[in-house]
Amino acid sequence: MEQKEQINAFCRQFKITGMAAGLPQVVAKSEKQCSGFMDFFLELLRHEATHRSNNEVIRRRKAANLPLKNDLDTYDHKAENGLKIARVNQLRELNWLDQGFNLMLMGPSGTGKTFLAAGLGADAVDKGYKTYFKSMEDLTNILKLKDMTRTAMAEYKRLLKADLIILDDIMLFPVDKSVANALFNFINQIYERTCFIITTNKSPAEWAKMLDDEVLATALLDRLLFHCDIINLSGKSYRMENRKTFFDQQQ
Question: What pTM value is reported for the model?
Answer without folding.
Answer: 0.76
